[in-house]
C-alpha cells in the first residue's frame, strides 16, 4: 500500500523556486506540512505565503546552518519525516575557462550541500527508526555532459554518496532515494542547448515523481521512466559507440548552442552573496 503523506512533515532545501517550489506544492496538496529553506529568505517567505508552506533561511554549504534549519523546522512543525535535498545550481561553459570560485560554488551547493543535508537527517531518523531522504540528482549524474562538467561531477558524486550511505542505512528503517530527471524548464537550464529527441520536462513533472517516490519508496527513479533502460543500455556499449550515440542525440552540442546571454541573470544571481542567492 502507498504511504499516507497527509500530516507528514516535509523539509525541502532550495524550495522557493523551480523544482523545489513545485515539489512543495505537490506535498502541500497531499496534506503534508512543508518547510522550504533558501538563501534568499525574503523571496522564500513570499513563496511560502502564496503556497501555504513555512520558510526558513538556509545555506546548504554551511553544516551549522543546515542543523539550525532542521532544528527550527522540528520546533515549529514536528519531527521531519521526509527530507528532500533539492538545492542545486549550474554554471555552463568550457571546463578549462571555469573560475576556481565557480568550481567551488557548484561542488559546495550540489555535492557538499546534499552531504550536509544527509548528515543532519540521518542521526535523528535512525534513532526514530523511520524517515525518508530524497536526493535530487540529474541524468548527468549518470552520464556527464560537456559544458557542465563540474555540475556533472558533483551529481556523479551524489550518486556515489547515495549508493554508499544507502548500504549503511540497510535495516535502519530509514529510506534513501535519488531522483534522476532529464533537464526541466527552470532557470537552471535557461538558454541551454537542447539535444535531439530529448523533451524538456516541467518542474511539476519532476515534483510528481518525488511525491510518488515518497508514497512508494524506491532507490532510483528516472524521470521520465523510459530513460532508465536507455541509460543502462548505454553503459553496455563500447565507448566509441557511446560517443557516437551522444553525437547522434546532440549531447555534444551543449556548448555550441547555449545562449549565454540568456543565462546572465540566473548565473549572476546564484553567484551573489548569501542574502541574495538562489536555490541553496
Would you kindly provide a written description of the structure presented here, covering whatever features stand out?
Mean pLDDT is 88; it is low at 275-280. The protein has a seven-stranded parallel beta sheet, with helices on both faces. The chain starts with 8 loop residues before the first strand and ends in a 10-residue tail after the last helix. It is of the alpha/beta class and 280 residues long. Strand 5 (131-136), helix 5 and strand 6 (174-181) form a beta-alpha-beta unit. The protein contains ten helices and seven strands. Helix 4 runs parallel beside helix 5. Helices cover 46% and strands 13% of the residues. This is SDR family oxidoreductase. Belongs to the short-chain dehydrogenases/reductases (SDR) family.
Q: What is the mean pLDDT?
A: 88
Helical residues, percent? 40-55%
Please indicate the percent range of residues in DSSP E strands (runs of 2 or more): 5-15%
Low-confidence stretches: 275-280
State the total count of DSSP E strands.
Answer: 7
- Given helix and strand content, the structural type is alpha/beta
Question: How would you summarize this macromolecular structure in one to three sentences?
Answer:
By secondary structure, the protein is of the alpha/beta class. The protein is built from 10 helices and 7 strands.
Amino acid at each position: 500500500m502507498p504511504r499516507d503523506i497527509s500530516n507528514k512533515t516535509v523539509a525541502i532545501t532550495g524550495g522557493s523556486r523551480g523544482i523545489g517550489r513545485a515539489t512543495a506544492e505537490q506535498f502541500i496538496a497531499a496534506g503534508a506540512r512543508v518547510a522550504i529553506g533558501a538563501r534568499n529568505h525574503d523571496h522564500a517567505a513570499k513563496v511560502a505565503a502564496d503556497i501555504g508552506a513555512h520558510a526558513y533561511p538556509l545555506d546548504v554549504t554551511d553544516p551549522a546552518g543546515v542543523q539550525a534549519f532542521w532544528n527550527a523546522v522540528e520546533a515549529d512543525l514536528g519531527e521531519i519525516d521526509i527530507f528532500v535535498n533539492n538545492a542545486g545550481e549550474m554554471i555552463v561553459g568550457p571546463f578549462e575557462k571555469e573560475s576556481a570560485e565557480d568550481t567551488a560554488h557548484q561542488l559546495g551547493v550540489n555535492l557538499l550541500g546534499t552531504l550536509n543535508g544527509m548528515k543532519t537527517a540521518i542521526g535523528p531518523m535512525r534513532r526514530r527508526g523511520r524517515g525518508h531522504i530524497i536526493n535530487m540528482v540529474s541524468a548527468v549524474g549518470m552520464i556527464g555532459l560537456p559544458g557542465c562538467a563540474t555540475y556533472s561531477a558533483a551529481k556523479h558524486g551524489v550518486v556515489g554518496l547515495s549508493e554508499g550511505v544507502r548500504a549503511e542505512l540497510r535495516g535502519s528503517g530509514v529510506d534513501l532515494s535519488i531522483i534522476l530527471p532529464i533537464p526541466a524548464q527552470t532557470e537552471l537550464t535557461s538558454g541551454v542547448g537542447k539535444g535531439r529527441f530529448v523533451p524538456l520536462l516541467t518542474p511539476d513533472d519532476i515534483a510528481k515523481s518525488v511525491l510518488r517516490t515518497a508514497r512508494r519508496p524506491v532507490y532510483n527513479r528516472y524521470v521520465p521512466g523510459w530513460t532508465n533502460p536507455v541509460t543502462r543500455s548505454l553503459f553496455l556499449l563500447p565507448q566509441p559507440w557511446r560517443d557516437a550515440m551522444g553525437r547522434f542525440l546532440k549531447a555534444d552540442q551543449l556548448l555550441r548552442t547555449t545562449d549565454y546571454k540568456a543565462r546572465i541573470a540566473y548565473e549572476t544571481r546564484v553567484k551573489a552573496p548569501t542574502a541574495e542567492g538562489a536555490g541553496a
